Amino acid sequence: MLGAVVMNGHGHVLHFGGQVVKNVAGYDVSRLLAGSLGTLGLILELSIKVLPRPVAEATLKFDMPATDGVRKLNEWGCHPLPITGSAWRDGTLALRLAGAEAAVKSARNTLGGEVVDAVEADRFWIGLREQTDPFFAVIEPRSALWRLALPSIAEPPLHLPGAQLMEWGGAQRWWITDTDPQTVRISAKQAGGHATIFRAGSAYDRNAGVFTPLMKIHRGLKAAFDPARIFNRVRLYSDF
């Protein structure tokens, strides 16, 4: 995201960022607004950077445990391979290659693995992006879908019960669990990252807050953008 036009809680239309990649003027409020889940204002316009579709694309899959998947992704990341996506779940690592046809073909020969049918691969990656994949389909009333942001070299926090899916070279972990929020956040912190409640069942602890609490900062932003607390109330915290 390069820039945004926003209406705040006073009804003022504010402009942040720009329309070119090298814009460096002012605070990076555009990305802040995109991550605020609608609690600071209404996004009226966006300027975003887009890239052309690659000439060639292929998806490979490998059978391996989570620990080996993280190790392999970090190993491959040190080489000039056209990797544009990765995901691990249920003992299978999926790897997407994209770019020039020669580069994709060379990478396929180097990495090995099983080539996934193109239609099936598109369905898989779109399912992850839009969260229509079966992994995201069922969340029990007492469970929540957590998003853990961790260093990509971190070992999977396997002591938490529930289903997990790893993306972004192991740096993003989706976790469906009924474990209490404090335990989840402590585990993420011990692994060098943080945890966010992305979606929760009706009986899950709603007082935990979506993000790891940084209340002084959050309250200051809320007071500046939406002092009357009009926008998306209780989305982040029960008293917001």
Structure in words:
26% of the residues lie in helices and 27% in strands. It is globular and about 60 Å long. The chain has 240 residues and is an alpha+beta fold. The chain has three domains: 3-50, no CATH class; 56-130, Alpha-Beta Plaits (2-Layer Sandwich), CATH 3.30.70; 138-208, Alpha-Beta Plaits, CATH 3.30.70.
List the helices and strands and how they pair.
Elements: E1 3-7, E2 13-17, H1 29-34, E3 42-47, E4 56-63, H2 66-76, E5 83-89, E6 92-99, H3 101-111, E7 114-115, H4 118-130, E8 144-149, E9 163-167, E10 172-177, H5 181-190, E11 194-200, H6 215-225
Antiparallel strand pairs: 1-2, 1-3, 4-6, 4-7, 5-6, 5-9, 8-10, 8-11, 9-10
The CATH C-level class name of the largest domain: Alpha Beta
- Mean pLDDT over the residues: 86
The second-level CATH architecture of the largest domain is 2-Layer Sandwich
β-strand percent reads 25-35%
**Count of the separate structural domains:** 3
Specify Rg, calculated over alpha carbons. 20 Å
- Number of separate strands: 11
- H-E string: EEHEEHEEHEHEEEHEH
Structural class category: alpha+beta
N- to C-terminal distance: 26 Å
Low-confidence stretches: none
CATH topology of the largest domain: Alpha-Beta Plaits
Report strand order across the widest sheet.
Answer: 7-4-6-5-9-10-8-11
Count of separate DSSP helical elements: 6
Shape: globular
Query: What's the main sheet like?
Result: 8 strands, antiparallel
What percent of the residues sit in helical stretches (DSSP H or I)? 25-40%
